[in-house]
Write a structure and sequence with these properties.
- The chain starts with 6 loop residues before the first helix and ends in a 5-residue tail after the last helix.
- The chain is flat and about 55 Å long.
- With 113 residues, it is mainly alpha-helical.
- It is built from six helices and no strands.
- Helix 3 packs across helix 4 and helix 4 runs antiparallel to helix 5.
Length: 113
Amino acid sequence: MPAELGGSQISSLLESLPGIASVLRSPVADALVKAIRAAAGIGEFAFEDAEELIRYAVRRGLIGADEGERVLGDVEGALKAKRRAARGAKPKSARSPKLHKKAKAAKHKKPRR
């Protein structure tokens, strides 16, 4: 019969064996850390992380399944729109210099009275 490990034994095991924490760590914990980093602007947001967190919240009864589906639909739609905007947006250097000059002149033009 295998012995159960207590909290202090697990902590000492995690400290003594480098890399084991990433193997034993929960996918929910990973998704939470990645989402926090993405929210702070120091990491990339991944839809898979959102799915993991929503599934966890539904399993624990924190949110209903219908709300989870709505949130994932909203996130997926926002990510698609963001990708479309990134593909369609031209860098400033690719814009026509003639159009840029006209826009700049119109911006500084005095209104007529």
